[in-house]
Amino acid sequence: MSKIAVIAHDNFKPNLLDFLKEKKSWFFGREIVATGKTAEFIEAGGLNMPFIHVNKGCDGGYLQITEMIKNGEVGIVFFFRDATIIQPYHDDIIKLLNSCDLENIPLSTNQAGAELLIIGKIRMEVSEKAQSKLNSNI
Fold first, then answer.
1. What is each CA distance from 117 to 24, 96, 112, 120, in whole angstroms?
2. For 118-130, what is each residue's pLDDT tens digit?
3. C-beta of residue 96 within 8 angstroms of C-beta of residue 108
4. Using one digit for the tens of pLDDT, what is the confidence trace for 36-62?
5. pLDDT averaged over the chain?
6. By CB neighbour count within 10 A (0-12 exposed, 13-18 middle, 19+ buried), where does 97 fall?
7. Sign of the CA dihedral with 99 first, then 103, 104, and 105 last
8. CA torsion, points 68, 36, 48, 81, in degrees to nearest 10?
9. How confident is the model at residue 7 (pLDDT cuts 50, 70, 90)?
């Protein structure tokens, strides 16, 4: 599986940390990329998981993840964002969200959607394993 991007605006970083702790078994062993401040917050929160750090969002981190999406390196994006704020680099955020749409990458912008995305991915993984097993028995 390709990398998973995790990003959170400042006031949603605690929510993302709690979510990652709760779903740690699902994230375990997967490559996770995070913008600078998000990665630092999660690591400081005691989540003992390796992260690939890119720049802070305001320093081009959103654009780095956008490029990774376009290059087929990122397959899922969890972006716990605050839709009520407009940052000076808001265009970078829009590019990231649009790249998910254009490249058909699952994107969740809140915890409820993230829960459903993981449930869906688990079901897909189980189905793929069953199909593979069935094909190998033919």
1. 15, 18, 9, 5
2. 999 999 988 988 8
3. no
4. 999 999 999 988 889 999 999 989 999
5. 94
6. middle
7. negative
8. -80
9. very high
